[in-house]
Amino acid sequence: MKSKLSIVVTINVVLFFVFVIFSMMSKSKAHDPLIYLIILTFLCSIPFLLAKKLNGPYCILVIFSPVYFIYFGMTDALGYFFDLPASKSSRGMGLTDTEMAILLGWICLIIGYVLAVRLFSQTKLKVEKDWKTKHLVVLGFICTIIGWYALWTLQLGFADHYSHTKVDMGPIKGMILIIGKMLEPFGAVLLVYAYLKEKSQTLLLIFFGICILKIPLAFVLDSKEIALQNLIIFFAAKWFYDGKVPVRWLLVFFVGVSLLFPLFYAYRTAVFSSSGVTREQAMASMTSNIDKTLRRSKKTTKEEGALQSGIISFTGRMHLKPLVTLVISRTGHGVPYQEGYTLSLLLYALIPRVILPNKDDSSIGQLFNRQFRISEDRNTYISSSFLAEFYWNYGWGGIIIGMLAVGTSFGLIGVKGNIAEHKSVTRLLVLITTIYLLCFRFEAGVAIQYTQWIRALIIVLILHEIFARPVKRI
User: Fold this and answer.
1) Alpha carbons 232 and 206: distance in angstroms, whole number
2) In angstroms, what CA-CA distances link 95 with 83, 92, 104, 146, 384?
3) Strand (E) positions, 222-340?
4) Distance CA 213, CA 371 (A)
5) What digits encode the pLDDT tens for the residues 399-429?
6) Greatest mean pLDDT among 158-162, 183-187, 261-265, 267-271
7) Model confidence over 6-15: pLDDT tens digits?
């Protein structure tokens, strides 16, 4: 505990002096986030002090803390090193309303998490169960194949927002394809767990082969998430299973992502922004589109350099602070409070459209865009983030209650999925499902993400009942 405390204190002290020095060197007359960054750094380091084991009951909070910093602080920190657009919201070093909301939200999440761990940590001993390796591998490949087919069908048809002709798949086919798409990350978890369990280099090579194949697929379907999904799953699974941070892998991942991001943006700009083609049409001209992308990327990164441009693109894409600023400044001043409407969509989101065909869409991206008039295209989906959505509904009270509830749900899963207590693929699936859908997708809407999370947990429990067998103690 002392060594961990010393590491956390050292990191905070080093970053404190780094931020102070660069703040003093900065010539910007806009808002200086120095005080905010110091407080946010300290608050995001608290989970590492709470966790006795990195894969214990606090594991979700430990992983989410750096993600939260990237969402709300990384771009501010990079502003000291790179020439980024300055904040126009205020002047001086004092905390803005946005910064107070971000800090308050994180404090409430930690409180909710700690309370859940304290309340639910006393569990009865159960018979330990896990899957056989052959079931992990076979079902892992089956889920991957089904997931790829569903993803391909959805992205080239129903979900192709570049196409003016929307494909109506019907509620039953749509439901089947959505469930099929959800199976693909499950397949990745099963294959990674089989590798971690057996230490098979063959399985590792196969898994990374799948990761490499998903990169061109991500370009064709115009989705960075497709390229990153399996890698995120690998790092999270290795972290949970080994109980330590895979620093080397994370550094390689960050550099790789930083180099890939400019290419994804260049592809979208060169192929889709002005040409008006659909994803299917773009796929037919893939060779020429790649050439356009490389020329566009070379032009974009000529002055800054590929790595710097990628880091700025990557962190800028994940920067949620401006959204919170927008919501706080305009809600109640021309934009009405939702008063629980967007959150209430979760209550019936699990009911299939076959039964309730006229239910409202639980994805609020279009509503958010139209209410705040962000994009000229009224049909464009704009992510709101959990934090901003809570304020959009009930103001400051929404942030307090909402983030307490999120923290409590995270803490409950952290306790019940404690993989340090017993390693099993079911616990790993539950933990990674939570990390991926609720932490890494914190930028999206509350109802849609919790709906997907509940659906995923139902699938996990069904698979557990079918394949899990008692583990023999040696």
Assistant:
1) 16
2) 22, 9, 12, 49, 22
3) none
4) 39
5) 999 999 999 999 999 999 999 888 899 999 9
6) 183-187
7) 777 888 888 8
Query: How crowded is residue 170: how many other Cβ atoms within 10 Å of its Cβ?
Result: 10
Higher pLDDT, 48 or 315: 48
Q: How far is CA 306 from CA 76, 80, 227, in A?
A: 20, 19, 18
Instruction: Measure the CA–CA gap between 358 and 369, rounded to whole angstroms.
Output: 22
Enter the tokens of residue 356: 């309730």
Q: Which run of H or of E encompasses 202?
A: helix 201-220
Q: What are phi and psi of 68, to 5 degrees?
A: -60, -40
Q: Is 152 exposed, middle or buried (0-12, 13-18, 19+ CB in 10 A)?
A: middle
Region of residue 332 (phi > 0: left; psi between -120 and 50: alpha; otherwise: beta): left
Which among 233, 245, 250 has a CA at the least distance from the CA of 140? 233
- With a CB cutoff of 8 Å and minimum separation 6, the contacts of 95 are 35, 36, 39, 103
CA distance 211 to 218: 10
The DSSP symbol for 346 reads G
Place of tokens 């969509």: 345
Is pLDDT larger for residue 294 or for residue 448? 448
Q: How far apart are CA 123 and CA 131, in angstroms?
A: 22
Token pair of 241, please?
A: 């299973």
Selection from 36, 56, 122, 64 nearest residue 406 by Cα: 64
Q: Structural domain boundaries of the chain?
A: 2-106, 129-470
Rg (CA), the chain: 23
- pTM given for the model: 0.85
Round to whole Å and give the CA distance between 168 and 230: 29
